[in-house]
TrEMBL record:
The lineage of its organism: Bacteria, Pseudomonadati, Bacteroidota, Flavobacteriia, Flavobacteriales. It comes from the Bacteria. Residues 1-19 form the signal peptide. This is T9SS type A sorting domain-containing protein. It comes from Chryseobacterium formosus. Keywords: Signal. It holds the Pfam family Por_Secre_tail.
Amino acid sequence: MKKHLFPIILLLLGNTINAQQDFFALTGKDSPRIEFSDFRAMNSDGTSGQSIFGVSSEAKVISQERKTAVTEDKNTYNHAQSMTLAALALDSSGNNLVYMPMFSSNIYVLNQKTKEITLVENSVARVTSCDINSHITRMTTGYDGNIYAINNAGTQFLQITKKNNQYAVNDLGTIKDDPSNGKNSFTEMSSGFGGDMIADADNNFFVFSTSGNVFKVSTKELNAKFVGKITGLPETYSVNGAAVNSKGKVVVASAKGAALYELNLENLEAKQLPGEQNLHIYDLASKYFANERVAAVAALANIDVYPTRVDEQNITVNVNDKAVKGNIKVNIFDASGKSVMTTNLSVKDGNLNQQIQLRNLVTGAYIVNIAEESGKILLSKKILVTK
C-alpha cells in the first residue's frame, strides 16, 4: 500500500485535493451605489446558496477591547451592517467571516454558526471616508493562516493575526510598483485600485484590480509586479471579487450586476459560469489557495478535511454522502511517506463531522488519507501544520 501511496504523496505536496466546497460572497443590492445586502454561500457553478447574514439581520456585536456587547450608531460608516462593506475573508478555521467597511478602520468577525460578531477596534488602519487611497477593498486569508488586507493605493498592507482568541493588527508597510510595471501601475487609480486579492501556497498574493489587471505581491519585497490582464470579460466588466475555488481556479465577480467568471492564473483567460447573471458582488472569499491543484484520488465529492493550514492542533473530517457507511480509516503521512498517525471513525447514515487532535506533529506538510474498511481511498489531502 505504502509503495503505491508515496507517488501520490509527492503529487499532493504540490497540489490540493478536490472537495466539494463553496466560496462566499459579499453581495449588494441592485443599486448604482454600494449598498450591502448579505453574506452568502456560493455554489461552484456560480449560483447562490444559503444567505448567512444580511443588512436586516439582528446583529449582536461584542467589542474585543471592552469585552462587552456594544450598540453601534447606524448613521455612520462604523458599524457591522454598514452599506459600504467591500472586503471579506474566510479565516483558517473555515467558520468565521472577517470583513471591513470600506470607509472604516473597524474589523468585524462573524461566526457563521452563532451569528455573533466580534468588533476588533484598531488604530493601525488609517481609513477616512473622503480619501479613496485609504479605502480597504482587498482582503484574503494567507497560507500562514493570518488575514491580509490592502488599501487602494497600497500604502497600507495590513496583517490581522489571532492568538488566544484575540485579534491584533500589524501594518507591514507600503507596497511599491515593480520597476517593470510601466503604465500598468499598482498604485494608480485607473490600473491598480479596487478589486480583491487571493493567496498562493507560498504566501504570496495576487491582487485583481477593478480594471482586470493582475499583480503578484511579494510579502518579503513588498512590491507588486504586473502579471497581465484578464481576457474574456465584457469590456465594461468591473472586477470586484476574487476567490480560489475547489478546482484551483480563480472565480471573479462584479459589483455592477453581472455573471461570475472562472479563470486560470497561468493564462488569465476567463470563462463565464452558468450561475447568477445579475448579482452585485463586492467581494469573494474561500478557504483555497492558488498553486494547489485538483488530483484524481478523491473518489467522492462530499468528503473533506479542513482546515488545510492547521494552527490549533486539530482538523475536522466531514462526510456527507450516503455511499459512505461503517468505519473509515484516517491515516496521516509525513513528506517521506511515513505514517505518523492513524485513527478510525464511524460514519452514521452517511454523515460525520468530527475533530481529530494532531498531537506531537511537528511543523511541516502532511497528507491526510481517508479510506474505507476495504482499503478504497476516499480522499487524500495536503495539510500544513504550523506552531
